Amino acid sequence: MASSTPPLLLKKPVKLACVQLASGADKAANLQHAADKVREAAATGAKIVVLPECFNSPYGCDFFPSYAETLLPSPPTPEQSPSFHALAAMARDNNIYLIGGSIPELATDPTTQKKTYYNTSLTFSPTGDLLGTHRKIHLFDISIPNKITFKESDVLSPGNALTLIPLPDYGLVAVAICYDVRFPELATIAARRGCFALVYPGAFNTTTGPLHWRLLGQARAVDNQVYVALCSPARDMTAGYHAWGHSLVVDPMAEVLVEAGEGEAIVTAELNGERIEEARKGIPLRDQRRFDVYPDVSAAGPAGAEA
Ligand SMILES: NC(=O)CC(=O)C(=O)O
């Protein structure tokens, strides 16, 4: 019987851009600035453009409620979510897939009027249609004495679903947010379900960033033999939270293809499905797993919801 070559996870090469954006307190100005920078990123030939976590607001628990927008039912009105409509227009106007960082989301229970807040990422197609939504699953609750204490769960609720988004021209991409990158199971499940890239809008800080940001990007890439993109806000030392910056793209062999500094920047990298196959052929982890010794975390379970 003739053997057929399986299709590449990434159907054709694509340039991906991370926009390391400087944002401030003025949401309208942040949206306009994001639109300008996304246009700049698209002008480089990038067809997948990524924005950072909380790109339309400062990052912090004090800010989530006042910047939150209503996203459901979808599509929201422009009054409910100016960011939704701004992102859709950025994708459409530039003919790109836009992984729109994240924004604080407000969900109001229609019966009880109880308000719930999420940290939510929206991905749009080149026609401006919403392709997928990810609510940050793992909330950023840490306390490192004399360095940093942060407790997103004081205000936010966690999402409950893994997010795999089909980009019709390219293949499946997994989207998760910042602290989600620290949980290898999530990445492993997404990779075993066939994504070509793990994309994390994020905002590490000057304590954890230097130690863990690049390391985690490389770890998720080498574990799963896929591309990884981490997209941060630019550092602003006048803000309450000092983002690490250093947006980067890692290839399936864990080589850092490109990395920004601290300031505003657009970094781009060419992704190629052949590189994923080469990495997997050279180091055939997929065929060497011992599911007779440990369970396949991707086989079943509640994490299976997809966009
Ligand atoms: N901001 C985050 O969600 C995560 C972070 O800064 C870290 O894990 O460190």
TrEMBL record:
InterPro entries: C-N_Hydrolase, C-N_Hydrolase_sf, Nit1/2_C-N_Hydrolase, UPF0012_CS. It comes from the Eukaryota. One of its GO terms (biological process) is glutamine metabolic process. Residues 14-273 form the CN hydrolase domain. GO terms for cellular component: mitochondrion. Keywords: Hydrolase. The keyword Metal-binding does not apply. GO terms for molecular function: omega-amidase activity. The keyword Cytoplasm does not apply. PANTHER family: NITRILASE-RELATED, OMEGA-AMIDASE NIT2. Belongs to the carbon-nitrogen hydrolase superfamily. NIT1/NIT2 family. This is Hydrolase-like protein. The lineage of its organism: Eukaryota, Fungi, Dikarya, Ascomycota, Pezizomycotina.
